[in-house]
Design brief:
The protein has 79 residues and is of the alpha+beta class. The chain has one domain. Strands 1-2-3 form a three-stranded antiparallel β-sheet, with helices on one face. It is elongated. It starts with 7 loop residues before the first helix and ends in a 6-residue tail after the last helix.
């Protein structure tokens, strides 16, 4: 299971409630449990522990363009 915009909400749901979303098969539930071990929910945001033991926030596709626009065109634009 790879985190994508289609299932990041499912991981957040599992981590906050301890249950898999409705409609998940037994195999999907097992995969979700295994996959969610590297993730944490902090203040409603999904974070993943990297191999270097640094927590990184997962940024869904729909937020990525806003972040890029703000960093290149906002008040803090430039390098």
């Amino acid at each position: 299971m790879r985190v994508s915009d289609g299932n990041f909400e499912d991981i957040i749901h599992f981590l906050t409630t301890g249950t898999a979303p409705e409609g998940y098969s037994v195999l999907q539930k097992k995969e979700l449990v295994v996959h969610a071990t590297n993730f944490s929910v902090i203040a409603g945001n999904l974070y993943k522990m990297g191999n270097d033991e640094i927590m990184r926030r997962y940024v869904p596709d729909f937020e990525q363009s806003d972040i890029i626009m703000d960093s290149h065109g906002g008040t803090m634009r430039g390098h």
